[in-house]
Amino acid sequence: MQRINGDEFGWDNEFGAHTVQVPEFAIDSHNVTNRDFLRFMQSGGYDNPALWTADDWDWKQKNHITQPSFWKGEGNLWAYRTMFGDITLPLTWPVYVSHAEAAAYAKWLGRRLPAEEQFHRAAYGAPKGAKERRYPWGDVAPTPLHGNFDFQHWDPAPVGAHPAGASAFGVHDLAGNGWEWTRTVFAPFEGFQPREYYAGYSANFFDGKHFVMKGGSARTAACMLRRSFRNWFQPHYPNVYATFRCVED
Question: pLDDT at position 108, please?
């Protein structure tokens, strides 16, 4: 998995070149939708401590977390908080949840969140003998056909609405429509060096308490869709445009 070419701009945590072998795995071709996550809720997922780590369960209990942060309502009557008002829950949109909720859902299915290198492989890898792609769809610059990014819309698009943006392996929405949680703890690559002009950009968050996110959201500028870019958040922060998909190793 090569992170970045030395001639390209990147933040300090994107350097240096980083290569790992990725064993075979299976990954969801689409993000988990609000409809999918509703089934998890209706099955009692928020009430089953076996699906949550001890820290995640403690956070959920103390803060009375019983649903995704962007949802309003109960039972079968759900609304969704958008930038400009509430609408009926769009079942085909990607679900936006915290890392803790995403991990619990994955465990409910007997799966896991992808590691950073698995996401990278699914997004930018190519069949044997072909070179790694610049973007999931290939090497051409991003356009509105490729995904929901670059401030085209305020809200998510239905999952799978941009088939032209699918990766070489048929995995959709890997750039745009929601940052994607991984199970990888945010940490420096070998040879990491902070930049003099912003020494704390990444180093302040190498605390073992943040998880890597990849991809991008509807509000992500096209220039930030480079394959090396790494976002990160704490696992219990609920108000981030972050969705997920699951893997089987």
Answer: 98
CATH 3.90.1580.10 fits 12-32+94-248, yes or no: yes
Q: Which residue's entry shows tokens 């972050």?
A: 242
C-alpha distances in Å from residue 80, one per residue of 17, 68, 72, 90, 93: 41, 10, 6, 7, 11
Burial of 213 (0-12, 13-18, 19+ CB in 10 A): buried
CA angle 177, 179, 183 (to 5 degrees): 140
* 198 backbone dihedrals φ, ψ, rounded to 5°: -160, 65
pTM tops 0.90, yes or no: yes
The HSE-up count of residue 150 (CA atoms within 13 Å, CB side) is 12
DSSP string, 42-92: HTTGGG-GGGS-HHHHHHHHHTT--S-TTEEEETTEEEEEETTEEEE--TT
Comparing C-alpha atoms, which of 129, 125, 118, 104 is closest to residue 25? 118
* pLDDT single digits (tens) 63-101: 999 999 999 997 778 999 999 999 999 999 999 999 999
Rounded to whole angstroms, the Cα distance separating 224 from 30 reads 21
Query: Would you kindly state where each structural domain of the chain is located, as residue ranges?
Result: 12-32+94-248
**Whole-number CA gyration radius for the chain:** 18
- What span, in angstroms and rounded, lies between the C-alpha atoms of 14 and 9? 9
pLDDT, position 8: 67
**Model confidence at 57, in pLDDT bands (50, 70, 90)?**
very high
215 membership: H or E segment, kind and range = strand 211-216
